[in-house]
UniProtKB/TrEMBL annotation:
Organism in which the protein naturally occurs: Gryllotalpicola protaetiae
Lineage per the UniProt record: Bacteria, Bacillati, Actinomycetota, Actinomycetes, Micrococcales
Designated name of the protein: Thioredoxin-like fold domain-containing protein
Protein origin, superkingdom: Bacteria
Length: 151
């Protein structure tokens, strides 16, 4: 099944959007938010939103996740112009099937010719080397540093 991801995104942009959206598929509202932002042409804001959403991750067994309205507030505070299209995509789960299909197709398969098999998400490789995902607020900075070290 071929699935396209927004007419405004090129292949590399769609790949980054896929990476960010698939990385948090355990929480449907979050994947909806990131996919909607990317599709709306605001891909550059996805890493900031991802970081801000993770910073508000609740802890404890009784903690509740942010609802759609709170997620949209987080996006807006991260520089996203929250359009009606983004709100509708978050509320309806417009990209849910696409993200799930991409996730299902990728798990258990080799990642290119790196010798690494995708076993879990998030998995990030920079220049063939796996970046440890710590979810401690340092992931984005370490990712950017890893990218800079390849230049």
């Amino acid at each position: 099944m071929a699935i396209s991801f927004g007419s405004r995104l090129g292949k590399s942009a769609a790949s980054l959007a896929l990476l960010m959206a698939v990385a948090i598929t355990r929480v449907p509202a979050r994947r909806r938010l990131l996919a909607a932002i990317a599709d709306d042409g605001q891909l550059a804001r996805v890493p900031a939103v991802y970081t801000a959403v993770l910073a508000e991750q609740p802890t404890g067994e009784t903690a509740t996740l942010p609802d759609n309205d709170r997620l949209l507030e987080i996006a807006a505070s991260s520089g996203v112009h929250v359009t009606s299209a983004i709100r509708e995509a978050v509320d309806t789960g417009r990209w849910d099937d696409w993200v799930q299909h991409a996730n299902d197709a990728a798990i258990g398969r080799p990642i290119g010719d790196t010798g690494v098999t995708l076993r879990y998400v998030p998995t990030v490789l920079v220049n063939g080397r796996q970046l440890e995902i710590r979810e401690d607020g340092t992931d984005l900075q370490r990712l950017l540093a890893a990218i800079d070290s390849t230049r």
